[in-house]
Amino acid sequence: MGLPTQAEITAVKLDAEGVARVGGTRVTLDTVVYAFNRGATPEEIVQQYPALKLADVYGAIAYYLQFRADVDAYIALRERDAARIRQANEARFESAGSRARLLARQSERE
Predict the structure, then answer these.
(1) How many domains does the chain have?
(2) Do the domain assignments include residue 89?
(3) Coil, strand or helix: which one is 50?
(4) Quick one: residue 97, left, alpha or beta (phi over 0 = left, psi -120 to 50 = alpha)?
(5) pLDDT in single tens digits along all 110 residues of the chain
(6) 6 in a structural domain
(7) Is 105 helix (H, G, I), strand (E, B) or coil?
(8) Calpha distance 18→74 (Å, rounded)
(9) Do 23 and 52 meet the contact criterion of CB atoms below 8 Å apart?
(10) Where would I find the beta strands (DSSP E) of 1-110?
């Protein structure tokens, strides 16, 4: 049995919505990159996200290191999209008074 001569990157795949996922799980590449940049080892990342396989985390980190500028741009775009959606939701669903209403309902039940 010989060794494979060409390795295919399978640790990172885009889902139907264009979100980069790691190892066929719901864990995003962003999540792994954030943990890695905070100093977490691949082993610690797997402990934190048990759905991941160690080889996939190493593969995702290798992918990030090889394509750092592209991945950083992708993450920045996702952060901008998340901020835009959060602002739209905050404008749409006013939170002022929500706590007071919830506490009033809780008091009524007691």
Answers:
(1) 1
(2) no
(3) coil
(4) left
(5) 565 656 666 899 999 999 999 999 999 999 999 999 999 999 999 999 999 999 999 999 999 999 999 999 999 999 999 999 888 887 787 766 777 788 888 888 87
(6) no
(7) helix
(8) 10
(9) yes
(10) 12-14, 20-22
